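User: Show me a protein chain along with its predicted structure.
Assistant: Here is one chain, sequence first, then structure tokens.
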Amino acid sequence: MSSADKLDSFLIKSGLPYEQIADGTWVLHPESARNASLGVKIEDPIVLFSIQLFELGLSAVGDHAAVFRMLLELNSELLHASYSLQGSQLVLSGAQQLENLDFNEFQAMVDDMCMALDNHYAKIAPMVASNQSTGTERNA
């Protein structure tokens, strides 16, 4: 079974609505996680999971110190994922080794990310909104 077939079988088994948008790339649409889209992509030898949250206006990074501190503190509550920046985009992301990935590990990553947004969004959104100068909210 190919890696893409393996991931596709996990997606079917999870029961989550999803779509394949390219070879080895899917977008999940969980009912939880504030209805955010969760990207899953094979980047051999790993599987990447990500949810884009907010575009941050990073012209004055010092203005975001409280946001960054809060995100680091929230990271300590996560098991499989973490908040990070990709450019000026705030992202919740994680990765798993593809070779030995089983359904339970796949589901644990998805659950961790969904629970993180369900539990953390109310804390993150107001802080990001009050610190945004040019950014716009994404997905959530």
